[in-house]
């Protein structure tokens, strides 16, 4: 378990951009040269060994996905290279459809979700030599955390190699124009601390919220002239309204000046956008040794107001820009790795 990490009152922008440089230890799961996702839960490892000694099949239930480790997961998911995550089931299906379109592979009709759909909707896009998963993770860090735990275990049991998790979504911008795709280099909490806080057995633990910087750079390089994209720091909060300083919730016990002062402070610290999942995604994947990225389109500039005023057509295009940017990168990478034909 990582030690309890504290943020000093003198934390500066450089530390927000890379908390590892501020002296805080970053503990990652060890990933071998084979690229497999390691299972670092000693309790589950012990149960596996006990079952093997009895000649039994070890069963770990991935309850919220509707899967378990006794299923032929390696056959179904062993070729997974990317897991694309979005908030809603509708977005997960949209991304799945775009995956087939971008990769030049005929989509099954209809495209059906895999496993349970009560909490998450997952689509296993099979592209011949490689799979790309598209899954909804719900809204907020608690829902995302459950999804991440079970998806990471799924990748472990499937023996998938070199898997990367990429969240694609929307956000409120800070100092950037609506429609800008923010590719996060790191994340901060609603306190503007570069950590994900988690209460475990009555104690609060904080884990550095860093993304894979090379992955972020590679995605950003695929923007081209038609998609406005910037690298930035994403603030992940546990509340859409008060937690993000909005004035249009049921209550707002602060002034407009208070709100603007906070947003300006965040902006000066390098924060480019607000959403509700970034710190959990960055910290948990980093702890587990899984490469991850976050690409969120801004729907508005929070310094100008709280209400989204873009037209439905504009909002659809904003969302499509982030998906297009990510899928451009995925296609480029799969072709480079020989998993897709160059003319796909």
Automatic annotation (TrEMBL):
Protein name: Uridine phosphorylase
Domain of life: Eukaryota
Organism, as annotated: Thecamonas trahens ATCC 50062
GO molecular function annotation: uridine phosphorylase activity
Family membership: Belongs to the PNP/UDP phosphorylase family.
Span list, region Disordered: 8-28
Record-level GO cellular component terms: cytosol
GO biological process: nucleotide catabolic process; uridine catabolic process
Domain Nucleoside phosphorylase: 82-330
Xref: Pfam families: PNP_UDP_1
Residues annotated for substrate binding in this entry: 244, 246
Upper classification of the organism: Eukaryota, Apusozoa, Apusomonadida, Apusomonadidae, Thecamonas
Binding site for phosphate: 119, 167-170
